Amino acid sequence: MQIYRGELELLDYVFYATTERGSVHETGGFIHNYALAYALGLVRSVPYTNLTQQPRYEEELTPLNGQLYITPAAPQRVAYSTVQWNTLRESYGIPKKQPSLGYPDWGFARMLRPGSRFTFYVLISDQGKALDAPALSQLLQGNPVRVRLGKFMAKARMQLRRADRVTERTEAFFAESYLNWRDLAEDPEFCDVVVASRPTRLISRAQFSAAPHYEARFGEDIIRLPANMRFLARPPGKQATSTTRKPGAAGGRKTSSKRKGKS
User: Fold this and answer.
1) pTM over 0.90
2) Domains and their CATH numbers in the chain
């Protein structure tokens, strides 16, 4: 298994509606791993138009399983800016039109500012076939690339660094990085839940019992990641929908992985 640490820096204002509070649409302080897969051009069958405004994650992302996996991008340095937009017509009568799920007519957007930085990880199987993705090929050669993110296709710069050494272990471990709950093969004993993460639940600071995982060394840094992570590995009803808080060993609060039945 090859593991790379990815550094993502925003070069423009990035907006996507994580939460909506009245007319205020707020962008979460993370970049979802599904968004990273699309930004890198790993999904080759994306239609030119999507009139139904319905995602097709399962049919577009699951073909990557067994070849490559990307974790969500966790914030390292984040700043926000709030702007107002108004696309209503300047007329006495405003005719009704079909509402858009992604572009409201009026409101405020709390966007990620340029200079915000995030960290993610790319896991590439040694047995996986080479992917036809020019941006990823450039990254693996050590070159930075520019990608587009968010509703307004904002620019961002991305670069990868390969781990000095990767070891596979089976023992209890603690994963500090952001993880996608639906992509995990094993439930953590407890974890922090990223609030209002869409389209799937994200977690961090997860404690796992004896389970297969990778230990990647980047200089003096040691990163531990669960093995067998796959895009959309669980059915939707298997996600954490209810949590119980308990005090963490290293300060702060953590969340156990108790779950309800399918919704």
Assistant:
1) no
2) 2-256 (3.30.70)
